[in-house]
């Protein structure tokens, strides 16, 4: 059976980072045409014998020096005109990390690599703005039914840090009293007998993430209903 | 820029049907090698100038005579060995319909087409069993945060029909009292001044779906927490 099809398959990585209480996004500056010099998601074409997951990890590593063991598949973008060169579909993946854990460095097809504040993104190549919008929706949706992002805080943190993380990722204010009541009722945070100042008010108790309880909640399904 | 890549792009349709209070799945019997004579999801290769959505609709129409205007993208399956002929990735889509609304008829690559009870599926070609498992998880997950499947019931229905639909799709018993209380509290069902017997007990009131309220809830996010 011969399939006369000339569609190319690419992968793209939407890597979100939480730093200085702001949501960031990892972008590369393209070295080649099309969109030469423009900013884009790290990504590239899948090799013939490589899984999609291996491809997105490889492209990310090659172009930005960032190694991420698990990226979640987001969506496949396949509009016929999305690449001006030829028909190419993009299987997009996303992840949420701590930027300080990585030493970013541009290489191969990338001239530069940077973390951009999500509220100050440059103009983007291809349909990457659409892919990012889609990833943000997915991330925010996920936050409402799963406690995402504990790995983004220090081991011990103020409740206000956790609240700020959620408020930042969701990009909306949180009803503090209800949120605290709800989160504490799940038992995923342990209040420690140790205080720290948030730099403004009087010292407040530190909290620690209860990982066992987290995995238990995760398996049962988890609803914040924010 | 030349991309020496020989990956083919296919689409597959997971079409669930709800009939006789049971969940069904639309499958075709393959006319060609590989897996000749085996059962498989309707699907096929994307044409060079066709969107992924158009491709899955076309393949479904050609192979089964079923026209569905909206299928939701499920996941892209790309393991290097999933097709014994060549490297082929499959962008899978799914939908949930009323089987009686369609006159199925096998054509092109299909020798036969049938609705199978989800609990009595035949052996499946390729990685289609995995794709179906994935689609079932997604469908069941979606049911817990969105009121799916009202279109599967008659215009006026007994609350027990609705409960049975949910119980069947979720494949688990439902706590009747809590479920009814929760569903009614959302205001998406209107209780009518009209009765019908369920064939067993005394006549019970009929219900109608409140579409305006449904879309309002949908926009706000919706949590059954079943």
TrEMBL record, chains A, B:
Keyword Hydrolase: yes
KW Hydrolase (keyword) present: yes
Pfam families: NUDIX (PF00293), WHD_NrtR (PF21906)
GO MF annotation list: hydrolase activity
Gene3D superfamilies the UniProt entry points to: Nucleoside Triphosphate Pyrophosphohydrolase, Winged helix-like DNA-binding domain superfamily/Winged helix DNA-binding domain
Signal peptide: none
PROSITE patterns linked: NUDIX (PS51462), NUDIX_BOX (PS00893)
Keyword annotations from UniProtKB, A to Z: Hydrolase
Domain Nudix hydrolase: 6-140
PANTHER family linked to this entry: ADP-RIBOSE PYROPHOSPHATASE, SLR1690 PROTEIN
Protein name: NUDIX hydrolase
Lineage: Bacteria, Pseudomonadati, Bacteroidota, Cytophagia, Cytophagales
């Amino acid at each position: 059976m011969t399939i006369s099809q000339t569609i190319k398959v690419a992968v793209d990585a939407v890597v979100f980072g939480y730093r200085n209480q702001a949501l960031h996004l990892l972008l590369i500056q393209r070295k080649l045409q099309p969109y030469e010099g423009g900013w884009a998601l790290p990504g590239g074409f899948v090799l013939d014998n490589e899984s999609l997951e291996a491809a997105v990890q490889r492209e990310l590593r090659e172009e930005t020096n960032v190694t991420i063991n698990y990226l979640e598949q987001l969506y496949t973008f396949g509009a016929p005109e999305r690449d001006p060169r030829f028909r190419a579909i993009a299987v997009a993946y996303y992840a949420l990390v701590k930027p300080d854990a990585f030493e970013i460095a541009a290489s191969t097809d990338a001239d530069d690599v940077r973390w951009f504040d999500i509220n100050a993104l440059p103009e983007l190549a291809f349909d990457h703005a659409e892919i990012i919008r889609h990833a943000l929706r997915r991330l925010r949706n996920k936050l409402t039914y799963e406690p995402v992002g504990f790995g983004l805080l220090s081991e011990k943190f103020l409740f206000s840090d956790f609240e700020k993380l959620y408020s930042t990722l969701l990009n909306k204010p949180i009803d503090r009293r209800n949120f605290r009541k709800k989160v504490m009722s799940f038992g995923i945070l342990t209040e420690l007998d140790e205080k720290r100042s948030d730099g403004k008010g009087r010292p407040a108790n530190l909290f620690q993430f209860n990982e066992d309880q987290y995995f238990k909640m995760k398996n049962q399904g988890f609803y914040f209903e924010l």
